[in-house]
Design goal:
mainly alpha, 2 domains, elongated, Arc Repressor Mutant, subunit A, 10 helices, 74% helix, single chain, Tetracycline Repressor, domain 2
């Protein structure tokens, strides 16, 4: 029984490793050629397996794309964690914590430009393929984890009066983060095309947007 159990564990690890190698190959293929232009056969070739093997792990291309987005998002959040959890973070008031979190989001266009481009492609693919919200539940779980951090800061700020008490934290989270990410993606994808996007550098534009968002929620304790 013990030997059989060990073989099962070894087999499960092998299966998981092959699945991860397919996901990694798919992400690289998407980066090089775009999600729409990437074929399962090309992903299989890059992963060193047959197309049938890819379909054994992923029923269709949309499911493969979704799991790639989940993995990419988790990877980026993990890379941002040290920037969010600085030594003095706990000593900050709620507004200062919110400001710190938004400053980290402002750096996305510099530290993970490839992921931002790919995640915009993912959003467009979801709309084009009519992928249901139910299929995106696991992907959204990763986003919800990051949402908790900013919401916690805002609620804390409302308690210590550093954030306006009349702010709807969920509405602010959605608007502020979507605006910052969308602007970052726009500047990454279109900055070389539209002349007006080059009149002011990306970092300045993104930082100004974050500053406006913070001024909107600033409470009495933060008024200078």
């Amino acid at each position: 029984m013990v030997e059989k159990s060990q073989r099962r564990v070894a087999l499960d690890r092998q299966i998981e490793a092959r699945k991860e190698s397919i996901l990694d190959a798919a992400i690289l293929e998407f980066i090089d050629n775009g999600i729409d232009n990437s074929r399962i056969s090309d992903i299989a070739k890059r992963a060193g397996v047959g197309a049938v093997t890819v379909y054994r792990y992923f029923e269709n291309k949309p499911k493969l794309v979704i799991e790639c987005a989940e993995k990419l998002w988790k990877s980026e959040i993990k890379s941002l964690s040290p920037r969010l959890n600085t030594p003095n973070y706990k000593a900050l008031n709620g507004f200062e914590k919110a400001a710190h979190i938004l400053s980290v989001l402002c750096s996305l266009h510099e530290i993970c430009p490839v992921s931002l481009r790919l995640l915009e492609q993912f959003d467009n693919y979801v709309v084009k393929e009519h992928i249901s919200g139910e299929q995106l539940l696991k992907y959204e779980e990763g986003i919800i984890d990051t949402r908790k951090i900013l919401l916690k800061a805002i609620y804390e700020g409302q308690r210590d009066s550093s954030v306006r008490s009349d702010i709807d934290a969920l509405q602010f989270y959605a608007t502020a983060t979507h605006a910052l990410v969308a602007l970052s993606q726009k500047l990454l994808l279109r900055g070389d095309v539209i002349q007006s996007d080059r009149d002011t550098d990306a970092k300045t534009q993104i930082s100004l947007l974050a500053e406006m968002e913070l001024n909107y929620i600033k409470g009495m304790n933060e008024v200078r």
